[in-house]
Specification:
It is globular and about 40 Å long. It has ten helices and no strands. The protein has a single domain, classed as AhpD-like (Up-down Bundle), CATH 1.20.1290.10. By secondary structure, it is an all-alpha fold. Helix content is about 70%, strand content about 0%.
């Protein structure tokens, strides 16, 4: 928690509620640190995370990741697409968004054709597996928020989101 406060300047309400289970918060922070070590860009990582947030209907996480994306320089059009479930103009990034949704929706059972289409978009088998890491990270937070119902932190309020903003993939 101390490291989180040093990194972002405050302890997000979600982290505070996760701290009820030290194992949960440590799992989340550890997996987040590992996910940051992938070869994926910040934009690509946010595509995986925000796609899962949207599909899980996680209002807290969508607002938080919108803030993180903006602070990290993710293109405004990409953020808008992720919040609404709309296609991303960049074909490679769109392939990642679609594949992240496939991994989520099939619970890790994509077809060979879906994997091949993703690989054809200039991603690798390593990326296929790293999409699973990002999805796993979001299971921890997206499943925690409806149970613990953390309120949005002040820095995230301007990015409030609800599932009515999202269209089908």
């Amino acid at each position: 928690m101390k490291a989180t406060k040093e990194k972002v300047g405050f302890v997000p309400n979600l982290m505070a509620t996760m701290a009820e289970s030290p194992v949960l918060v440590e799992s989340y922070l550890t997996l987040m640190g590992l996910f940051d070590k992938t070869d994926l860009s910040e934009t690509e990582r946010q595509i995986i995370l925000m796609t899962n947030n949207r599909l899980n209907g996680c209002t807290y996480c969508m607002a938080a990741h919108t803030a993180v994306s903006k602070m990290s320089g993710v293109d405004e059009a990409v953020i808008r697409a992720l919040r609404t479930g709309s296609p991303i103009d960049d074909p490679k990034l769109e392939a990642l968004r679609v594949f992240a949704a496939i991994i989520h929706e099939t619970r890790g059972h994509p077809t060979e054709e879906q994997i091949e289409a993703f690989l054809a978009a200039e991603y690798t088998k390593q990326t296929v597996l790293e999409v699973i890491v990002g999805t796993s990270l979001k299971v921890l937070s997206n499943y925690t928020t409806p149970i613990t119902t953390p309120s949005l932190d002040k820095p995230f309020i301007q990015f409030a989101w609800d599932s009515k903003m999202a269209s089908a993939t």
